[in-house]
Every structure is written in structure tokens, then in C-alpha cells.
């Protein structure tokens, strides 16, 4: 397995992990009162939009040649960090409301 394939596998796992965390947050939000739930759901919707963007960047990365994928990797990694930051923000908001 080459470096690109290893990176793609790790990126897939990271994206699945973040998706699972978002789903868990959504499930926990179900128990909140309507107003608090609405605020958390807005955050969750933003996270899902970010996640879709990250998935698109990963697909672009996968479609690049072995040499060119490293050029796209930086943008992908930034998108993942932004998604993680958004998730941490949503979690902190959830803890405030819970």
C-alpha cells in the first residue's frame, strides 16, 4: 500500500468517526427542551454541511494522481480541523444546555 492509500484510509476513518460523533450529539439533543434543541440542531446542521464539504475534498483527493494529491492534502486537513473545531463548539453548547 502506498502513502496515498494509507492516507485515504486514515482520512476515511477520521470522517466516519466524526460522523458517528455528530450522530451521537444529535441523539443526545433529543432529550433537551424545544428551544435548546433548536439551537443545538442549528449547530448540528452546520456540522453536517461542513462534513459534506470534507467528504467532497476527500473525494477530490482520492481522484488525484499519486503525485498531485499532496497539493490537495493541505486543504483537506484544514477542512477536517474546522469540522473538529465546530464539533467541539457544538459539544460545549450542548453541555451548557444540558
Report on the architecture of this protein.
The chain is an all-alpha fold and 98 residues long. The radius of gyration is 16 Å and the shape is elongated. The relative contact order is 0.17. It has helices at 3-29, 34-63, 69-97. The chain has three helices and no strands. It has one domain.
Given helix and strand content, the structural type is: mainly alpha
Radius of gyration: 16 Å
The percent range for strand residues is under 5%
Distance between the termini: 45 Å
**What is the total tally of β strands?**
0
Tally the helices: what do you get? 3
**Helix percentage range:** over 70%
Query: Quick one: overall form?
Result: elongated
List the helices and strands in order.
HHH
* Mean model confidence by pLDDT: 89
Most strands sheet: none
The count of domains is 1
Unreliable residue stretches:
none
Amino acid at each position: 500500500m502506498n502513502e496515498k492509500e494509507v492516507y485515504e484510509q486514515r482520512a476515511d476513518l477520521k470522517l466516519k468517526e466524526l460522523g458517528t460523533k455528530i450522530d451521537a450529539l444529535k441523539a443526545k439533543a433529543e432529550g433537551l427542551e424545544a428551544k435548546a434543541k433548536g439551537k443545538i440542531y442549528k449547530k448540528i446542521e452546520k456540522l453536517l454541511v461542513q462534513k459534506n464539504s470534507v467528504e467532497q475534498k476527500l473525494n477530490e483527493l482520492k481522484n488525484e494522481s499519486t503525485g498531485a494529491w499532496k497539493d490537495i492534502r493541505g486543504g483537506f486537513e484544514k477542512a477536517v480541523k474546522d469540522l473538529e473545531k465546530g464539533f467541539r463548539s457544538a459539544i460545549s453548547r450542548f453541555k451548557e444546555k444540558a
